[in-house]
Amino acid sequence: MAGVSSKPGLNEVKLEEGKNYTVPLMVLTSLFFMWAVATNLNDILIPHLKKACDLTDFQSSLIQSAFFAGYFLLSLPAGRIITKVGYKNGILIGLSLCALGALLFIPAAATLTFGMFLFALCVLAGGISFLQVAANPYVAVLGPPETSSSRLNLAQAFNSLGATVGPYIGAKLILSNVEKTSAELAAYSSDQLAAYRLAEASMVKLPYLGLAGIFIALAVFIYFSNLPTIVEQSSEASTAEHVAKGSALNYSNLVFGVIAIFVYVGAEVGIGSFIIRYMQYLKIPDITEQSAASFISYYMFGAMTGRFIGSALMQKIKPNKILAFNAFVAFLLVISSVFSVGYTAVILVVLVGLMNSIMFPTIFTLAIDGLGKFTKDGSSYLIMAIVGGGIIPPIMGAISDSSNIQTAYIVPAICYLYILFYGLIGYKKK
Description:
- The chain is mainly α and 430 residues long.
- Helices cover 77% and strands 1% of the residues.
- It contains 21 helices and 2 strands.
């Protein structure tokens, strides 16, 4: 097993020399794709369950809160468990939890219980947290340290492919495209209204049953696959350094990075969560929920395209510089959208996806740079910070309920200003 790190200075992990790790990377990349599909179905669930369960913008945003609570609650335990059982077994635990969470959608839809939907999402996200904690650093160390950011960006590009495909599939399978006006619903009897809401909720059964089947199939495949074992080996010098520092949280690049992941995920999720609602507010002509959902896919497609481009650019340009540039442009796009109307406002927001492209993997690799034996702890803290995706959207929802959804988009603009700070200053190791 050879010692390769995610970045220079993290020379703590050894891999088998002379071995080709293309197949393991392909297997891990499939996980990035699948958890993106599951995660981005939430953007379809928000308008769908808002209608099925008669929710406000704030209440519907709790879908993201429940989902990202799973990250927050299980990311740190996931790191500890993976330390004991290994990366491969950690991935198997994650896939099992993902399948269970998806299956819980069946009784939630059958009883039209919003609380059960939230619990199912929390379990599903808990499984994804295991996958994230294991797979992100796994990809970072499976190759030369100087190309770890590029490698992780490439894996995240397929994550973006899943994020692009997820809303499209979800819109076709979940959104009925039958939109009742308030007057039509008011004319229904209580029995008719209950039957209508139950029929809408039942639309989630088939896609989540299929999702559970795929997670189970992946678990079986990985169980019988020959993934390499990662063994941490600290040198005496690095051990002395880490004994003195005592904790991953002694590294400023990690602490600032945790905040950067929090606000980045919050901004990305908040924008995507309310694109359909945004277009309804802007009164885009002849727009339906299904057609509006296409813009979520365009938003995610921009992220996918940008990651392929970013993976190439990072071979020549320092990652922190690209991060700072993208954050600044994202800020300008969102602020411009807030003061625009019609399709112009929508297109500006959709273009933010291109700027989002390299942010998560770049922040992640900058944040764990130099952590040595604390890498898994640092990874766990970073994955915990994904809970920002469950906090920023409700803030936007509350602002929308009290004002309007366009004003609420000022929140992600502020988030991008912090990421600009991280790319310029906060990433430095101290």
